[in-house]
Amino acid sequence: MSAQQNTKPDHVKLIKKLVFTVVFMFGFGFALVPLYDVFCDITGLNGKTSNSAASQSQVVDVDRLVTVEFIAHTQGRLPWTFEPEIKRIKVHPGEHHEVNF
Amino acid sequence: MSSIENSATDHHDDHEHHGAPKGIMRWILTTNHKDIGSLYLLFSLLMFFIGGAMAMVIRAELFQPGLQIVEPNFFNQMTTVHGLIMVFGAVMPAFVGLANWMVPMMIGAPDMALPRMNNWSFWILPFAFLILLMSLFMEGGGPAFGWTFYAPLSTTYSGDSTAFFVFSVHIMGISSIMGAINVIVTIFNLRAPGMTFMKMPLFVWTWLITAFLLIAVMPVLAGAVTMVLTDKYFATSFFSAAGGGDPVLFQHIFWFFGHPEVYIMILPAFGIISQIVPTFSRKPLFGYSSMVYATASIAILSFMVWAHHMFTTGMPLAGELFFMYFTMLISVPTGVKVFNWVATMWRGALTFEVPMMFSIAFIVLFTIGGLSGLMLAITPADFQYHDTYFVVAHFHYVLVTGAIFSIMAGAYYWLPKWTGHMFDEGLAKLHFWLSLVSVNVLFFPMHFVGLAGMPRRIPDYATQFADFNAIISIGGFAFGLSQLLFVAVVYKCIKGGEKATDQVWEGAEGLEWEVPSPAPYHTFETPPTIK
User: Measured between beta carbons, which residues in chain B are less than 8 angstroms from residue A77?
Assistant: First the structure.
């Protein structure tokens, strides 16, 4: 029993450290919010997307043929039918096509 | 390796304070590590079946293309709550239960260091899951944004049940943190004299490191859900670009928790396998200290790889390369472990009892999961695999055939020590073989449909995936039903059976095998001497 009484203060000291870690990490979670911005500033890495519009390739790749399939369904037991007019279509990448539902 | 003198422990048992009290209050008020361990294990078994039932709903809906059984919104609730229940309700409490039972007995301690907190950390858990499950029955339904609750799905577009979700995750987190503090204090302060750190069984080591991971990352999860809560209800803009926040920030914070979390769910599994393989190979574990260092390095590396979950968010090239290489680095200490298990079996006198069969299945199937993880780590390839069934196959291989199989192995390994009876080995072997076959029918074809482009978290899919999905669903139903055999084995073993010896398994070594079977209510009240 005396051995156990000797370890009691150790418990308290260790628990204090562990609880401090928990509180610290909770705070750290929130600190990550500004820290990510700071990190990006320092390293010059920018995780956020730039505001310039991406340019689209207008070239049609006639060598490749891609099969695109369409499916559609209605919510639950609604009294509608809603389906694609064509189930599948073969296109070259870059081509424009219109499909009706 | 070590022997003990604990003849003094037995006559403590008939002292009036030391027997197990009777009735329901025994379980509610208990501070005994064995009672709380049993509670945790039974609770996680219940959650395993509730989460499993949700998986059955998912697989039933996906049996055929088109919508047959459930609405898409309910389907999303099923995938979300299945994930949450299995991670926080089944796998984690099962490991905490095993730690409660085995850690004090393995290090020669009379109980956990903080028994009253132990009671609390278990008894708040049922309420957390009650809140989560109740939200499924509310108007608008439960959480439907995936277990990863990405903003803005969980903030702008979520239902009113989000507050319940946040509160229940808070309670789960508090429970895990208290459990982790208890494990650390127990291992640091209550080791028997002579039980130095480098003599501790590997299950104790892996749990010590897991506990440190828990206190480091569960508070970050609590922070993340708090931010979701304030973004949704209190007009903050942590994750809303309109208010100066950043939705990608959510993913950074979530995965800073999320990646160490996956090691929280696998490191104790490594510990269990490291206990079982030497027993049935009748050889000491090969490379004990390298196992300890490998576990520690996995834990440290786990903090440096979180963004490999977010390769497709538009990260800079430097970030993608850094996270790709560090992720691949983790396979080195993991490889050390797999090598050590195989080397332990090499030229050992192997026998194939049920725990060993689950362990060998673990080693093979977990390695498959690890290899698909390496494939996902390759950044350019990940753009193809991201959010497909390939990812689903990967994490179910590491969590079901990894974590769950190790828990099954551990349960079969220690069940005779807990109940004092041998379990029905024929039935257990049937459980093993049915699980082994069905789990692979269930998850292996997911690799193929994933690589062919089937996205995850969808209630309907393109018709070319129909055949594979039917096979997957059949595997799923078979795996789910096979688990009922486990319940039958456990029930029969509690009720009776052949009397187990103290050592139970011929090659078993360690303090837990030197106390009687079933383990008395109090063990090691006088610390054993480790020679």
Answer: none
Q: Which domains does chain B have, with CATH numbers?
A: 7-513 (1.20.210.10)
What residues in B contact A46, CB-CB < 8 Å? 316
**Alpha helices (H) along B346-465:** 354-377, 379-385, 389-398, 405-419, 425-451
Residues of chain B in contact with residue A21, where contact means CB-CB under 8 angstroms, are: 215-216
Q: How confident is the model at residue B108 (pLDDT cuts 50, 70, 90)?
A: very high
For residue A66, the SS3 value is strand
Q: Do B220 and A33 touch (CB under 8 A)?
A: no
Token digits for A24?
């610290």
- The reported pLDDT for the residue numbered A96 is 82
A63 touches B264 (CB < 8 A): no
Mean pLDDT over residues B500-525, rounded?
92
Q: Please report residues of A whose CB lies closer than 8 A to that of B218.
A: 22, 25
State pLDDT tens for residues A43-61: 776 655 555 566 666 778 8
Lowest mean pLDDT among A65-79, B121-135, B382-396: A65-79
- Residue B68 neighbours by CB under 8 Å, 6+ apart: B60, B61
CB atoms within 10 A of CB B3: 11
Query: Which pLDDT score, from 0 to 100, does residue B34 have?
Result: 95
Q: What is the mean pLDDT of chain B?
A: 93
Residue A8: band (very low, low, confident or very high) from pLDDT cuts 50, 70, 90 = low
Nearest CA in chain B to A72: B66
pLDDT at B172: 97
Segment B474-489, tens digit of pLDDT:
999 999 999 999 999 9
| Residue B60, CA distances (Å) to B56, B229, B237 in order | 6, 33, 39
Q: Does B53 touch chain A (CB under 8 A)?
A: no
- The residues of B assigned a catalytic role are 82, 111, 147, 175-176, 259, 261, 263, 274, 308-309, 334, 337, 456
Q: Which residue is closest to B237 within chain A, CA to CA?
A: A33
Report chain A residues touching chain B, CB-CB < 8 A.
3, 7, 10-11, 14-15, 18-19, 21-26, 28-30, 32-33, 36, 43, 45-49, 69, 71, 73, 75-76
What type of residue sits at position B59?
R
